[in-house]
Amino acid sequence: MESTPAQDMQTNSPIPPKPPSEEGICEPMYGGFSRFEIELEFVQSLANPQYLNHLASQQLLTQPAFVAYLAYLRYWSRPPYVKYLTYPGPTLRHLELLQQETFRQNIISPDLMNQLVEAGMKAAVDWHRET
Amino acid sequence: MDKYIDGRFERLEKALAVLVDSVNKYHPSIAHAKEIELADSELSKGLEDVQTHQNNYIRIQELRKSSAALDSQIRDTLSSLASTRKDIVTTHATTFPPGPSYPFSYEELLSYARRISKTTMPSASMIAAAAPAAATSPETTQTPQATEFTGATPSAAPTPSQPQSPAINGAPTPMQSQVQPSQQTSTLTTLPDAYSDYLNPLSGQPFYPWPQEHQIRGGALASNQLLSEQGIDPKGYDPVEVENRKQKEEEERRAKEEQEKQEHQKRLEEERERQLRQQEEWRRNTAAGSSPTQSTQPNAPPVKKQFQFSSLDDLDDDDDD
């Protein structure tokens, strides 16, 4: 998990990228991928607790620019973007948790990471059992 | 009412008695007769009153009855109203979370549900296996619930490092396969592994409700990271396009080579043709100069014959000369 979001992504305007549509969108591509694809991938990677731990270990979660980027990524919790998340539960939960400074500080601890793993697994199973 | 009508009767009887008495005494009087007539009319009026009274009484009875019925109806309605109200109060209404709500279409929701079912839904056996685990004892909450949830094979193989609750079933992953194969406590009727693997290729794979490390490593961000490590700015750089361009160039180069080759071939052929023509010309020239050595030309046999004939003719001509 060495991949980290390109820094130039953070300096982009706070307007979320347009979701894919029928008509072609002319916007710059990054290594052959659109901003929409890259941001979708990154926000879903946040669902993985180990990735969060990795980001914390890279000192990324303390950078103001990165925190602003996390705040910007909250557009994924709204339509029309939310329907593109294939891991909606953990993704949005971790995205909200990442808005808290204490969480950003604490996720470097492996204990919290393991707790998140456990809770995520339990939630996935329990939710389906109850319904 | 009885007293009222009794009084009338008494008055009539008394008047009648007085009249009879007076008739008995042979001394009837008009006054007595008048009196009896009055009493009689009074009595009939009284009887009419009685009739009205009776009618009224019946009516009162009826009204009472209907009022009682209405009362009971009101009571029933009220009690049902109260019970309904209680039901309504105790009914659990859907509590919408605070915050904005957005409209969506039914089709959209269904297609989304279908799309995320693979990434959010653990296998059925896993859910079934987790049910007794949650129900057993509080100690299950202390043990790490799910480090390796796996699919349909109902065998238990706890990891050595993290003691799981025994009720959680987990198929041995490649890492765990050497650990405790004796713990298989399968009592369910299951298909042989080969069949179930064939029917559900995802069975036996661990389930995680988030993307895995290898997926993140194989994604767009990782490839961009790789590009920037190579010193290429990923913005505006499309490896596919570059690859396509390379391929195109390669194709063009190959086409060019092919063309050159063809041209070369063509040139060679032309050269040969030219040589042939030259030879023929030379032969004709030499034949005109009556040279018998013409037959040594490296030509095809039928052509050779022709040449022989011609050379013979030539010879004949020569002989004639």
Automatic annotation (TrEMBL), chain A:
<protein>
    <recommendedName>
        <fullName>Mediator of RNA polymerase II transcription subunit 31</fullName>
    </recommendedName>
</protein>
<comment type="similarity">
    <text>Belongs to the Mediator complex subunit 31 family.</text>
</comment>
<keyword id="KW-0539">Nucleus</keyword>
<dbReference type="InterPro" id="IPR038089">
    <property type="entry name" value="Med31_sf"/>
</dbReference>
<keyword id="KW-0010">Activator</keyword>
<keyword id="KW-0805">Transcription regulation</keyword>
<dbReference type="InterPro" id="IPR008831">
    <property type="entry name" value="Mediator_Med31"/>
</dbReference>
<dbReference type="Pfam" id="PF05669">
    <property type="entry name" value="Med31"/>
</dbReference>
<keyword id="KW-0804">Transcription</keyword>
<comment type="subunit">
    <text>Component of the Mediator complex.</text>
</comment>
<comment type="function">
    <text>Component of the Mediator complex, a coactivator involved in the regulated transcription of nearly all RNA polymerase II-dependent genes. Mediator functions as a bridge to convey information from gene-specific regulatory proteins to the basal RNA polymerase II transcription machinery. Mediator is recruited to promoters by direct interactions with regulatory proteins and serves as a scaffold for the assembly of a functional preinitiation complex with RNA polymerase II and the general transcription factors.</text>
</comment>
<feature type="region of interest" description="Disordered">
    <location>
        <begin position="1"/>
        <end position="23"/>
    </location>
</feature>
<feature type="compositionally biased region" description="Polar residues">
    <location>
        <begin position="1"/>
        <end position="13"/>
    </location>
</feature>
UniProtKB/TrEMBL annotation, chain B:
<keyword id="KW-0010">Activator</keyword>
<keyword id="KW-0804">Transcription</keyword>
<keyword id="KW-0805">Transcription regulation</keyword>
<keyword id="KW-0539">Nucleus</keyword>
<comment type="subunit">
    <text>Component of the Mediator complex.</text>
</comment>
<dbReference type="Pfam" id="PF10018">
    <property type="entry name" value="Med4"/>
</dbReference>
<feature type="region of interest" description="Disordered">
    <location>
        <begin position="229"/>
        <end position="321"/>
    </location>
</feature>
<feature type="compositionally biased region" description="Polar residues">
    <location>
        <begin position="287"/>
        <end position="298"/>
    </location>
</feature>
<feature type="compositionally biased region" description="Basic and acidic residues">
    <location>
        <begin position="235"/>
        <end position="284"/>
    </location>
</feature>
<comment type="function">
    <text>Component of the Mediator complex, a coactivator involved in the regulated transcription of nearly all RNA polymerase II-dependent genes. Mediator functions as a bridge to convey information from gene-specific regulatory proteins to the basal RNA polymerase II transcription machinery. Mediator is recruited to promoters by direct interactions with regulatory proteins and serves as a scaffold for the assembly of a functional preinitiation complex with RNA polymerase II and the general transcription factors.</text>
</comment>
<dbReference type="InterPro" id="IPR019258">
    <property type="entry name" value="Mediator_Med4"/>
</dbReference>
<comment type="similarity">
    <text>Belongs to the Mediator complex subunit 4 family.</text>
</comment>
<feature type="region of interest" description="Disordered">
    <location>
        <begin position="132"/>
        <end position="187"/>
    </location>
</feature>
<protein>
    <recommendedName>
        <fullName>Mediator of RNA polymerase II transcription subunit 4</fullName>
    </recommendedName>
</protein>
